[in-house]
């Protein structure tokens, strides 16, 4: 370990221990989500099920709730529900990562938990360089850096070149990674790299991007790509920057979504259909997936968006900001993507309440259905004389389905205390499964057809959950407090 690394590690540790009590006194701290111990968290990184343990890393600034530097925080779990804080995995100590150990992924290479990430460097003129680096660990906690394996940009691309997602192709006995990129004409791209020995990497070229493969103008930079096959199709997940809002789509500052199609590694080319957003909520970006030992494709996202409701979230005054989403299992069924919360989350459930809810024009509550950390599943909707059905959580977040236009709306108070909403079209309402965790809500609609992930900030004393309609609507409620 270099002296610089030792020094940065010590600094981060001192800062963390100093600020931890203040952070932990925040009433908006979450109960069952991964959060930074102090400071800012952004992208999930290095997400892998390795030797029977889930390892999850994240972009982390231990010094302040802002983006000024990036370390890799690390947590582990054996059940996807309870997470243990591990020693910091990467600190930006070397010449090839002075301005941050940026996002990347993990793979088992020769029995070692091996990370591949972007070393971000800015010189005195603020000129950026990007190095794709590796670091490996035999025990899963202490990482030895191997430095850059790719230190040149391909011609025609800017230094906005980052976030390698690596995998192994059994049939070719070769490694591949996809990486987010920007052309000199400011078009977003995903590039494919290949290696026979995990040391020498060659750039095969772009596989998808703005103004490629039938897409029109589709953003000036594509971040955090992820590519895998799922239930007989190939899927490319990416976070494009620079899309314009279009009706109910693309309303956040930056988007995260997917294309399904076919990857031809030899051309290389990813032939794909239309882009679909993965999440309809206010806070979701830069997701990453891994396949676990059970063969499940599990996605975790950043419950935040760059430059959107970051500086003014109430948690900032307690010295921290952002969290990761719950783990979701992905499947493609009848051509449609389904995202379902990992079943293990049922472990959090306390004693259940099962009731029929009758919503009318005056807001109503249901006995024992209230709380700040809970799972609420609503099903068997019957729109007797009503056109609209609403759930109001802690007098702050509103979920509303309107049968007259078949639109689902999530509403909350956000930046500058303004009420704001996100929506999606929904032909029918069968199920609303709502994970409430103090200051976050993840809403899974119709068994994973749509998801809305958002932060919300309610009166800390308020634990109410109310139902309302413009006429009469009944449904079945299953409710569990989560601890
Ligand atoms: C996405 C991102 C990545 C980058 C990282 C830096 O949120 O901008 O492209 O590697 O965050 O923290």
From TrEMBL:
Pfam families noted in UniProt: Glyco_hydro_32C, Glyco_hydro_32N
Keyword list, A-Z: Carbohydrate metabolism, Cytoplasm, Glycosidase, Hydrolase
SMART domains: Glyco_32
Signal peptide segment: none
KW Cytoplasm (keyword) present: yes
Protein name: Sucrose-6-phosphate hydrolase
NCBIfam families: scrB_fam
InterPro entries on file: ConA-like_dom_sf (IPR013320), GH32_Enzymes (IPR051214), Glyco_hydro_32 (IPR001362), Glyco_hydro_32_AS (IPR018053), Glyco_hydro_32_C (IPR013189), Glyco_hydro_32_N (IPR013148), Glyco_hydro_beta-prop_sf (IPR023296), Suc6P_hydrolase (IPR006232)
Domain Glycosyl hydrolase family 32 N-terminal: start-end pairs: 33-341
Catalyzed chemical reaction(s): Hydrolysis of terminal non-reducing beta-D-fructofuranoside residues in beta-D-fructofuranosides
Species assigned in the record: Salisediminibacterium halotolerans
